[in-house]
Amino acid sequence: MPTGVVLDPDRSSANHVAAAIDQARRAYDAGVRQVWIAQQFDHDAISLAGYVGAAVPGLGVGTFVVPINPRHPLILASQAQTAQAATGGNFSLGLGLGAHAPEEVAFGTAWPNTIGRLREHLQVLRSILDTGTVDFHGDEFTAAPQFPVTVAGGTPLPVYVAAMGPKALRVTGELADGTLPYLAGPRTLEDFIVPTITAAATEAGRSAPKVIAAVPVLVTDDVEEGRARAAEALEFYATIPSYARVIEREGVDSVIDLAAVGTAAQVTAQLRRYRDAGATDIVLSPLVRTGIAALEPIWDVAAAL
Question: φ, ψ for residue 101 (rounded to 5)?
């Protein structure tokens, strides 16, 4: 999988989907061969990835990430297989565990059994993707449809989880194809994430998992101003316990220290540390996503890395 970038279409555009396709096509023309789309409360990331991948042949597309709550794994399986068929086999499903506080605000409830729900989600997905059938009865989910669950052209389909904690990494190594950590620095990757998920995959008899490190990036000649913009963009993550633990594990003073900020050469050097730490792939997440002028230098770095 080539170095990827996070795609975030201009929300002031007249048509959101058309804007996403246009941005993806521009990135592809710049040499980018993999884009990732975040799930938010406006567009549906899986659908949008399918549209983008169908419109830009040869471009890998994926979700970074779709929270498992409040989604049922049967629905996710049908959406993901449809996107995989639409893109001609260039889709990757990236899942996230979610966060209780935002879920309570948005949905009026939260799902406390995080690891149990993740395990059952992946068990249902694994059954569908590996066997084409599912008959599952768990504590969190039941999945026993009386109708077909497969989409022609929808498999094989890689599934990744934005797992960073020990329990989530072990479940991911056992049942998924790799992890998509965000804000996990080189030290955390090398000392904790890579060995933990690799051991779990080995014990489960699965192939070596991918470790797709997503890094916030800003290419600029004014490093001081860039770090100030990074601080503003990333302050939310320091309030989420899972990210706070990763920041602490990395041993840095601030979440800003986990961003790659500087000239193209400086950013490239910082990103190469992630490969040295065991990342199999890297995703560049632009800290400033408004305007092609801010994105093009990041696309150039991704294409050359």
Answer: -60, -50
d(CA 48, CA 264) in angstroms, rounded, equals 29
282 phi and psi angles, rounded to 5 deg: -130, 140
User: 161 - beta bridge partners?
Assistant: 95, 179
Burial label for 17, CB within 10 Å (0-12, 13-18, 19+), is: middle
Q: Which CATH number do you get for residue 298?
A: 3.20.20.30
- Is 96 within 8 Å of 72 (Cβ atoms)? no
Domain count, the chain: 1
**pLDDT tens, residue by residue, 31-75:** 999 999 999 899 999 999 999 999 999 999 999 999 999 999 999
Three-state SS string across 181-243, please?
CECCCHHHHHHHHHHHHHHHHHHCCCCCCEEEEEEEEEECCCHHHHHHHHHHHHCCHHHCHHH
Residues 6+ apart with CB under 8 A from 149: 74, 77, 78, 128, 132, 133, 134
Q: Which tens digits make up the pLDDT trace of 19-30?
A: 999 999 999 999
In angstroms, the CA 80 to CA 92 distance is 8
Contact predicate 39/66, CB 8 Å: yes
3-state secondary structure 108-150: CCCCCCHHHHHHHHHHHHHHHHHHCCCCEECCCCEECCCCCCC
Domain of 213 in residue numbering reads as 3-304
According to DSSP, residue 66 is labeled: E
- On whether the CB atoms of residues 109 and 175 are closer than 8 A, the answer is no
Global pTM exceeds 0.70: yes
